[in-house]
Design goal:
Number of domains: 2
Protein name: Ribbon-helix-helix protein, CopG family
Number of strands: 0
Structural class: mainly alpha
Strand content: under 5%
Distance between the termini: 31 Å
Helix content: 55-70%
Radius of gyration: 18 Å
Order of helices and strands: HHHH
């Protein structure tokens, strides 16, 4: 188990630049964690395309909206506008 209580798995390696590795190390140190745990948290927090689509379908269903390609495009456009106003730092739906 990790410090956060998550089960451990077999270690592997990821190739990246020294710049990215150093940034990950700094971010992990600032959060009092390890690079591995930082990456685990990121991977758990970020949704896959399939997960985002499923959540959109569920939200549309709850709102009584038929989730068509047109609705999907309108939602994507809205999120793009929101991110533009946030300087590109906003999370996608």
């Amino acid at each position: 188990m990790t410090r956060t209580g998550k089960p451990t798995s077999r270690p592997t390696s990821i190739k990246t630049s020294e710049k990215v590795r150093d940034r990950l190390r700094t971010l992990a140190e600032e959060r009092g964690t390890t690079i591995t745990e930082l990456l685990e948290d990121l991977a758990a927090r970020e949704l896959t395309e399939a997960e985002r689509r499923q959540r959109a379908l569920e939200a549309a269903r709850e709102l009584g909206v038929e989730y068509t390609e047109q609705v999907e495009r309108a939602g994507q456009d809205a999120w793009a506008r929101i991110r533009a106003h946030q300087g590109g730092s906003g999370a996608a739906a």
